[in-house]
Design a protein that fits this description.
single chain, 60s Ribosomal Protein L30, Chain: A, four-stranded mixed sheet, about 40% helix, globular
C-alpha cells in the first residue's frame, strides 16, 4: 500500500492547470504547422500563423493561451493500492484548482447556481472530476480545461442502431457545420459511442485527450475517424470560420458496449488549442 498526502494532489493540480493553459501540446502544435503547409487559402494561412504566434507568446511570456481558461475538468486514474492521507480528497483537488487559477492569473468562470443566481464562485471551483480505479499504486491525473465556446457546440443524441455508421457520420458533420466559427476552428472532434446517455458524453470528452495521429485500435473505427475528418474538412469552414481546407485537425472515437435498444452518440468539440496536461504521481 502506497500512501500519498493530499497536499501532493493540491500541488500537482495547481501546476497542471497552469501548464495546460500556458503551453500547447507538441502534437497539437505540429498538426497546426502541417495544416499551414497544406493550406491554399491566404486568409486561412494568416489566421493559422496568428494562432501559432499566439502559442509562442503564451509559452514565452507565461500567460494563458486564451482568455477563457475553462471549466477545470480533471481525469484521474487512481491505483487501487493507493491510500490518501492528510485530509479530504475532494477538498484537496478543489484547493489545487483555487491555487492554480489564482497563481496562474487564470480567469475564474464558474457560477455557483446555473439558473437562479449566476454568481461567480471566485476560484473556478468546483472542478469536474472523472475518476477510475485501476490496478497499481500510481495516480495519473490529466487536466483538460474546457472553454465555453467549444463546449456549447457539443451534443448528445440517442440514436437507433439502424442509423448505423451513416447516421453517426451525418450527425458529426452536421454538428460541426451548425457550429461554424463558434468553437474557434480548426477544431478537434471527440465522439463517444455506446454506454448510456452520460457515459457517451464522458467518452467523447475523453477522446479529446488522445495524441494526434493515434488512430482507434479497432480498424473499422479508425477508418470511420478518417472518413468523418475528411467530410468535415470538405465543409470549407476553415480557420476561425473564414474558409479554408482545415476545419478540423482530428476526429477521435471512443466506444463501449451499449443496450440492445440504444445507440448513444455524443459529439464533444474542442477548440484549436486542445488544452490538456498530465502527470503521474
Amino acid at each position: 500500500m502506497r500512501e500519498i498526502n493530499v497536499s501532493e494532489l493540491s500541488d500537482a493540480v495547481c501546476k497542471l492547470f497552469i501548464d495546460a493553459n500556458y503551453y500547447i501540446p507538441e502534437d497539437v502544435a505540429g498538426s497546426l504547422k502541417k495544416a499551414l503547409e497544406r493550406e491554399t487559402s491566404e486568409t486561412a494561412k494568416e489566421i493559422l500563423k496568428i494562432i501559432l504566434k499566439n502559442h509562442d507568446i503564451s509559452a514565452s511570456e507565461k500567460m494563458p493561451l486564451c482568455q477563457d481558461t475553462g471549466v477545470a475538468v480533471l481525469f484521474m486514474e487512481i491505483g487501487q493500492d493507493v491510500h490518501f492521507s492528510g485530509g479530504d480528497f475532494e477538498k484537496a483537488i478543489a484547493e489545487g484548482v483555487r491555487k492554480g487559477y489564482s497563481e496562474g492569473y487564470l480567469r475564474k468562470s464558474m457560477v455557483g447556481d446555473p439558473v437562479m443566481e449566476r454568481k461567480n464562485t471566485g476560484d473556478n471551483n468546483p472542478p469536474v472530476l472523472h475518476i477510475k480505479i485501476v490496478p497499481g499504486e500510481n495516480v495519473k491525473m490529466t487536466a483538460a480545461p474546457k472553454g465555453g465556446g467549444s463546449e456549447n457546440m457539443s451534443e448528445v443524441r440517442m440514436m437507433k442502431a439502424a442509423d448505423g455508421t451513416k447516421g453517426i457520420i451525418d450527425f458529426a458533420v452536421d454538428r460541426v457545420k451548425r457550429s461554424g466559427g463558434n468553437p474557434c476552428p480548426p477544431v478537434i472532434v471527440g465522439i463517444g459511442i455506446g454506454g448510456d446517455f452520460e457515459q457517451s458524453a464522458i467518452l467523447a470528452k475523453k477522446a479529446l485527450l488522445r495524441r494526434f495521429g493515434e488512430r482507434n485500435a479497432d480498424q473499422k473505427y479508425a477508418e470511420l475517424e478518417i472518413e468523418i475528418l475528411k467530410k468535415i474538412n470538405e465543409l470549407g469552414i476553415g480557420a476561425m470560420g473564414f474558409g479554408g481546407e482545415t476545419t478540423a485537425l482530428e476526429v477521435f472515437i471512443e466506444h463501449v458496449p451499449c443496450h440492445i435498444a440504444s445507440m448513444p452518440v455524443a459529439i464533444n468539440i474542442n477548440c484549436h488549442a486542445a488544452r490538456h496536461k498530465e502527470i503521474i504521481l
